[in-house]
Amino acid sequence: MLLLLLGIVVVHVAALVLLFVSTIVSAWAVNPNSSSDLWTNCTTLNGVSRCDPADTGVWIQAVQALMILSIIFSFLSLFLFFCQLFTLQKGGRFFLTGAFQIFASLFVMSGAIIYTVMNSEWVHESESYGFSYILAWVAFPLAFISGLIYVILRKRE
């Protein structure tokens, strides 16, 4: 049982780290001379870097909010797991923990979908998706799977 708990915590922390990195790091759209993320657009011309704030459009603010909500819900889910681990009765399920983690996965999925759909209006065609965008999509199934495991998991002696 201890190995199972350790494994689920490792998957949960991995998803939380991926969510944090994908939200903060500037690489949602990249090309050799520029990179864009949810917060800034950086360009490099003749060795000089210049970063401007991201567009203030409604859709980018929605993506920012959804990614921040996914981090908050994933962190709360981890906190609730440790609280429930010591307070839940034997045989009880971690429903609240699982629900928060599933919400976190749905938030990151929604944010990535909005970014994918609206990306063509904001980012130049020469840019491709960066690793932060890919990490957001990798965090989605990790968070969803850990949420399902929490819902299925029963507390034992």
Oligomer state of the chains in this structure: single chain
Tell me the number of helical segments per DSSP (H or I, 4 or more residues long): 4
Uncertain spans = none
State the domain count.
1
What does this protein look like?
The chain has 157 residues and is an alpha+beta fold. The protein has a single domain (2-27, 56-152), classed as Butyryl-CoA Dehydrogenase, subunit A, domain 3, CATH 1.20.140.150. It is built from four helices and five strands; from the N terminus they run αββββααβα. A five-stranded antiparallel beta sheet has the order 4-3-2-1-5. Helix 1 runs antiparallel to helix 2 (58-87) and helix 3 (95-122) runs antiparallel to helix 4 (131-152). The longest helix is centred in the middle third of the chain and has 30 residues, at 58-87. The N and C termini lie close together (9 Å). Might be involved in growth regulation, and in myelinization in the peripheral nervous system.
Question: What can be said about this structure in brief?
Answer:
By secondary structure, the chain is of the alpha+beta class.
For this entry, give a set of tags:
13% strand; 157 residues; 66% helix; 5 strands; Butyryl-CoA Dehydrogenase, subunit A, domain 3; 5-stranded antiparallel β-sheet
SSE inventory with pairings:
Blueprint: H1 2-24, E1 29-31, E2 34-36, E3 40-45, E4 48-53, H2 58-87, H3 95-122, E5 128-129, H4 131-152
Helix pairs in contact: 1-2, 1-4, 2-3, 3-4
